[in-house]
Design goal:
127 residues; elongated
């Protein structure tokens, strides 16, 4: 089974791919799968466009700044904890974990929004 590596997790591919069927049956199956994929594309485009109607370059910039800020808070917290040279306490680790989680979630949201545009589920408004 193959996997797809994304920025923070692996997703298993579980699509069945027959190897020993008749070429006519394979073409028919590929056509059916293409229709299924197109249905998913149309559903994504309609649902996402309706849920996120006001996306423009400024939205991307705000999300990018928010993500960069979260990254700085996470790394800054780690650096502050390392200044004393003493092992981090449970509370310090909890703060560090919280900061990392915030950064990772924002980064994933940014990538998710970018993928929506890349896959043409969402159209960016231009000025």
């Amino acid at each position: 089974m193959s996997t797809i590596q994304t920025s923070t997790y692996r997703r298993q591919r579980d699509h069945f791919e027959p190897q020993d069927t008749d070429p006519h049956d394979q073409r028919r199956l590929r056509g059916l799968l293409e229709q299924i994929d197109y249905s998913a594309f149309v559903a994504n485009r309609e649902v996402i466009a309706a849920a996120l109607p006001g996306i423009d370059a400024a939205v991307f910039q705000r999300l990018a700044v928010q993500t960069a800020t979260a990254r700085v808070k996470w790394v800054g917290e780690a650096l502050r904890q390392s200044e004393s040279g003493a092992p981090s306490t449970a509370d310090q680790i909890a703060r560090l974990t919280s900061a990392r989680t915030a950064y990772e979630e924002l980064a994933e949201a940014y990538e998710g929004l970018r993928r929506m545009v890349e896959r043409n589920y969402l159209t960016i408004k231009t000025p």
